[in-house]
Amino acid sequence: MNNPELLTSSYDFTLPDELIASHPASPRDTAKLLVYNRQTNKMTHCHFYDFEKYIPKDCALIFNDTKVIKARLYGHKPSGGKIELLINRPLDANNINVYIRGKVKADTQIIFDDNLEAVVKELKDDGSRVVNFYQNEKLLRFEELLPIIDKIGHIPLPPYIQREDNKEDVSEYQSVFARQEGAVAAPTASLHFTEEQHKRVCTKHEHAYVTLHVGSGTFKPVETETITDHPMHSEYYDISDKAKDILNSDKPILSVGTTSTRTIEFYARHKELQRGEANLFLHPNNKPLRVNHLLTNFHLPKSTLLMLVASFVGVQKAQELYAEAIKEKYRFYSYGDAMLIL
């Protein structure tokens, strides 16, 4: 193995704990923004309210309009044992893939508020579980479950935000253009837009929406020695007709976030598939074909998201950009600051 870009160890870095953002910037657009221009090799430090100045002329923006659901539920077994359940994704109308903290086996019943129950159907090898949800003994479809968990569930803050969710998170861990319910993690580059800024950008630039329901697999670190041996997680996506028209054109694209990027690039490789399951892994040996510019946050060491960033700039430059961000005390991860790659 001579290529360092394919070694997982090349994507490691040390982040001081105080740079992990546990709360969002307020207002949203006061987050820092690092702009990197690949043509001039220049880095610029500014704030997200400056973002519009850097959008290339004649560029279309693609946003992910997924909406985070209250996927974390606290319940108990009939014996009284406490259970924490995190919804990951529906497998079909009734079978839901989840992660459970607490010991369960097949047929274990879990009781929640509002007469909601879950019954464990299957234990998967990857540590996840398949459950069916019932309310008043009626088997629920996923869309019937959503209004119930909206009432009794909790916002599923990522594992590195080491605090309980609060009222602020209900609105802050959600983009201002979130529409399609189904994500268990926010598309974090989107979180910087205020209503006003989003409106201004959309007035000045052609734009469209895709939907990628972000799953908890997005936080899974790469544990294989070589990145290409990593089993990439799969997520449901849907590309609007307007987005499809832009993707099929030759217009330059600025992708808002890694999730929009994965969706666009999956479509670039499978043009007959406007919706379905996307499991594309972008890295320096699998570079973007359609996205020209990327807006993104700062991601975890050894994560597929950092490898996606490296697919645009290479691993050495990605490490340089991250070292600069650490030196300048940028805030990292979901509630952290942003980077624009031009």
CATH superfamily of the largest domain: QueA-like
Q: What percentage of amino acids are in beta strands?
A: 25-35%
Q: Which sheet architecture does the biggest sheet show? A: 9 strands, mixed
Number of helices: 8
The total tally of domains equals 2
Helix-strand pattern, N to C?
EEHEEEEEEEEEHHEHEEHEHEEHHE
Taking Cα atoms only, what radius of gyration do you get, to the nearest Å?
20 Å
Which residues form runs of ≥5 with pLDDT under 50? none
**Could you name the CATH class of the largest domain?**
Alpha Beta
As for the CATH topology of the largest domain, it is QueA-like
Number of strands: 18
Report on the structure:
This protein is α/β, with parallel strands linked by helices. The protein has 2 domains: 4-68 and 168-341, QueA-like (3-Layer(aba) Sandwich), CATH 3.40.1780.10; 72-152, QueA-like (Thrombin, subunit H, Beta Barrel). It is built from 8 helices and 18 strands. The protein has helices at 51-54, 142-152, 167-172, 195-204, 241-247, 258-269, 304-313, 315-327, and strands spanning 32-37, 42-47, 60-64, 66-68, 72-76, 82-90, 96-101, 109-111, 116-123, 129-135, 138-139, 180-183, 207-212, 235-239, 253-256, 275-278, 293-297, 338-341. The strands form 3 sheets. A 9-stranded mixed beta sheet has the order 2-1-18-17-15-3-13-14-16. Strands 5, 6, 7, 8, 9, 10 and 11 form a 7-stranded antiparallel beta sheet that branches. The chain is globular. The relative contact order is 0.21. The model has no long low-confidence stretch (mean pLDDT 96).
